[in-house]
Amino acid sequence: MLVFTLTPGLRPDVAAAAVRAGDVAAVVLRVLEGGAPDSGHLRAVAEAIQKHDAAVLVDGPENLVAAAGLDGVHVSDQRSLQAALRALKPQAIVGAGGLASRHDAMEAGEGGADYVFFGALEPQPGDAAEILDLVGWWAELFEVPCVGLAASLDEAGALARAGADFVALAETLVADGGAATVTAAMDRLARVDAQP
């Protein structure tokens, strides 16, 4: 997975190039708080990504899903998760982020979320060890797919070894030279898969 913030500077071709550079299942587009996104720009970015068979999820208002032809939402606020599940399932993907505890993750998984996402979309210093711990715990016990956020290529490899179903590359990794970073991450993940 890749994370981008929907700003006027996010070019559809740049986002698509990053997706094309590897086996990217989904892209989470963050919508900045307090501002309504340009629906034409959102649709253009989404279409460029979707052409390469990656789902586009918005971390923002759920009404954007239908309005911009998106595949679903990434819900970072647990208070909004149940409302999103009721409004969008089963037609759209509803992922659960913003998980502050193991209990929150279990509630999200049991509530019908399509995936649980460990780590904030904007990584915080020192979060890597906790994300790794949560991914390892979840992968051993639960069937709902889990995603771990990586703020470095080393973290991407560690999350894969811990059993993450998907590794999300933080925007800090893919903002500049996203395609090259995705290629490097895919190489790291392939090496993990090749280990006995």
UniProtKB/TrEMBL annotation:
Q: Where is the signal peptide?
A: none
Question: What superkingdom heads the lineage?
Answer: Bacteria
CDD domains hit by this protein: TMP_TenI (cd00564)
Matching InterPro entries, A to Z? Aldolase_TIM, ThiamineP_synth_sf, ThiamineP_synth_TenI
Where the record annotates domain Thiamine phosphate synthase/TenI, the positions are 13-171
Protein name listed in UniProt: Thiamine phosphate synthase
